[in-house]
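=== RUN LOG ===
request id: a7f3
mode: sequence -> structure
chains: 1
length: 507
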Amino acid sequence: MRRYLLLGLTLLVLFPLKAQVEKEGDFEKMKKESQDMFEQFKQQANKEFEDFRKKANDEYAHFMEEAWTSYAVKDAEEIPMEPKPVITYEHEARVTNDMIEYDVIEDVPTDRLPSQRLPLASISNEDLVLVGQPEPLEPIMATFDASATMQSLSLYGSSIKVRVEPEPKKPIKLKNLTEKSIARMWKKLSCPYYDNIAAECLRQRKACNLCDWAYVKLTEKMANKYFGEGTNESIVLQMYILVQSGYQMRIAMAENRLTLLMGSNEKIYGYKYCEMEGIQYYIIDRSLEDKSMLIFDRAFPQEKSLSLALVQPKFSLERTEKQTFSAQDYPEITVTVETNKNLLDFYNDYPVSGQWNYYSHASLSECVKRDLYPVLQKAIEGKKEVEAVNMLLNFVQTGFGYSSDQDQFGYERPLYPDETFYYPYCDCEDRSILFSCLVRELVGLDVVLLSYPGHVTTAVHFNEPVKGDYLLVRDEKYVICEPTWPGASVGLCADKFKEKKPIVMPM
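=== RESULT ===
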């Protein structure tokens, strides 16, 4: 709110000055006066923001001095392991017009998804950004002086340029690992020097299109740069940056080490956690998850939980070996694709989420789109919706090798669309995720994911009449499209699944 007030006051000052300039013609003089006034407003606003944050941090540190609380560590929830059917399909099977009964999944998080869909058949991801990410309690205005230099942090093979000031002559050091010592360090961090560090991290979050998890990794790199990798001081600095950035974090003592816990309202598989006031806080450092923990469980004002929603981060391109994919029934759809190893490394490190819509909305990287989309666009150009979707369906059905996650990875692992073009095999949810992405972005149709016991498929909302098995979602007709069954055309649902109710996940 304060940033908008500042902007409004500035405009109120500048508009009359503009009118006065036009009347008197003394442009340079009035320009300097308006700039001086703006700088005064800016400095005053910066001081108010800093004072407000410092007061909040002083109160936070006061509670930090009190005894921390012991919480039970709960076991990580394992990724569901369900056998996936090996699917075959007879071409002569009849396409019916049966309505499928279903159960609607509980509200799917959408407040952290991209702010808009990609323009139809777009190759660039520039306009696809996350919304709803945590924000500082008050704007953090960087106040670097002339001594600041640009330095690089390495994040998933990418060089992230950040401004860095010379370190203070008396660097902060924890005297011991006690509540009071940590609180004293927190108070010392609450100053313009370390606020500049937080401001740089936030600047790079926007510049590199970093999701919450990537931002956690960036702040870890930044904290390690100042205090050394994995030191207790670096953990406190990372906690400080994340809290100032608006994230719901907790800090814990485990024997002689500190670790962070990230609050999330979403289920994150494979990470142990502590539950506090109904919120699950996942332990980031897995080497400490079996230790007894004392946790500082005080909330910072206006904190917001971490989400696993993402769009394509802007990582440097390290090309993988090219692979060729073809649609069995449409020879014109043959494409050779390379992927980005840096992005694949990031996905390999990314926590597994149960929100399949996140995987689809992550879209494809620009390097894959450059190879793939022109071929698909040319193939479906001028086609009716159902014909275009059938072509994309056949490409996904026949262009990729099939294997269960258990056989390929040893555990259940949904793949992001880029990963499907890299790994030798994929299964039903991977194909459904990729197919839903292609249909949304190339044909412009809405898609829902359908979860059956041991199987995932899709249904598409067409703008024209289409025969076949369907569901009614929000009173709109969605026609079954099965990306896993070679030869299954739009509208065909296997008899074995007609008898079961899927869970519908809107996109």
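=== NOTES ===
The first strand starts at residue 69 and ends at 70.
The CA atoms of residues 213 and 350 lie 7 Å apart.
=== END ===
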